[in-house]
Design a protein that fits this description.
Shape: globular
Number of helices: 8
Order of helices and strands: EEEEHHEEHEEHEHEEEHEHEEH
CATH topology of the largest domain: Nucleotidyltransferase, domain 5
Distance between the termini: 31 Å
Number of domains: 2
Largest sheet: 7 strands, mixed
Structural class: alpha/beta
Radius of gyration: 19 Å
Mean pLDDT: 88
Strand content: 25-35%
Low-confidence stretches: 1-17
CATH architecture of the largest domain: 2-Layer Sandwich
CATH superfamily of the largest domain: Protein of unknown function DUF3822, N-terminal domain
Helix content: 10-25%
Number of strands: 15
């Protein structure tokens, strides 16, 4: 059994969350063969979890940071390195594989305007260069729209090589699916921030209505604040009164949270969309951490 290695993982510092491994002893009984594998793949690293099918319980978590890409700087090289070093991949069996992949090349298309087969057209209208990408789409029924997204061909090919028929989703689909479970009727506006290393996703809602979603690259705590206030201005929302929920590897002591709190008083951490069962080994991990990874389970169909 392994616990959180504190020298590699410090709460409130997303840049310090290096190689983390948490496993439940139940995996040693062969239970892993009856688990699904979940992956969250971002430019700075990979997060992996095993979830038991029978009791819908998460039993293991592992994270990797890509400090310096070096010779393994391409996705095939990085994933090959990951597959060789991952404890969960090397030591445990699993059934199906689900991957949530970050890509800045995505757009949201209302159901009324979406036509299957036109994914390339939608992306080309929004991005100057989508060459070298495979295009995908996924329905988000709760908001009556489709996510259309492009993922690098090298990454897609490597995932299909490492795993048998993995389901590859865009990270925005996971976030929207999770948020749709918590929204209430009415016209109360709200902002959700998904904090990532050097970036964040911003979602604005009004009751159960999706107003906008966007992704920003951020290099400093000031950048996270700037884009949050920019969204407030564009959506005509008052940062002094608007409710803002935060998910990601931050807490009250992080520079990002402190910067946001200077200007946004109604700030809180986003609760889980559902009460996932988790091994007691996860007790040290705050509920708003690894939000995209755990809520990928909601997209299983």
């Amino acid at each position: 059994m392994e616990t959180v290695p504190q020298q590699a993982f410090r709460l409130g510092d997303p840049d310090a969350a290096g190689h983390l491994v948490i496993t439940d002893e139940a995996l040693e009984t062969g239970l892993s063969g009856r688990c699904d594998l979940f992956l969250s793949i971002e430019p700075d690293g990979i997060r992996v979890a095993l979830k038991e099918k029978k009791n819908y319980r998460f039993l293991a978590l592992e994270t990797f940071r890509f400090e310096a890409r070096g010779d393994a700087g391409t996705w095939p090289g990085l994933l090959e390195k990951f597959s060789k070093e991952s404890k969960l991949l090397r030591e445990y069996e699993f059934s199906h594989v689900w991957a949530a992949v970050f890509s800045p090349s995505y757009t949201l298309v209302p159901d009324a305007l979406f036509r299957k087969g036109d994914e390339r057209l939608y992306l080309d209208l929004n991005f100057s260069d989508t060459s070298g990408m495979q295009r995908f789409s996924r329905e988000i029924p709760a908001f009556s729209l489709c996510t259309v997204y492009g993922i690098g061909e090298e990454l897609v090919q490597k995932l299909n090589h490492l795993f048998e028929q993995p389901v590859i989703l865009h990270h925005s689909s996971v976030l929207l699916e999770a948020l749709s479970r918590k929204l209430k009727s009415g016209k109360e506006p709200g902002i959700f921030l998904n904090i990532r290393n050097r970036g964040m996703d911003v979602v604005v809602t009004e009751g159960k209505k999706l107003v906008l979603m966007n992704t920003f690259s951020c290099q400093s705590a000031e950048d996270f604040l700037y884009y949050t206030l920019f969204i407030c201005e564009q959506a005509d929302l008052n940062p002094e009164t608007i409710g803002v929920s935060v998910a990601g590897e931050v807490n009250e002591n992080s520079a990002i949270y402190k910067m946001l709190f200077k200007y946004i008083r109604n700030l809180r951490f986003q609760p889980s969309a559902v009460n996932f069962e988790k091994s007691y080994r996860f007790n040290e991990i705050p509920g708003h951490y690894f939000y995209s990874l755990f809520h990928l389970a909601l997209c299983v169909s």
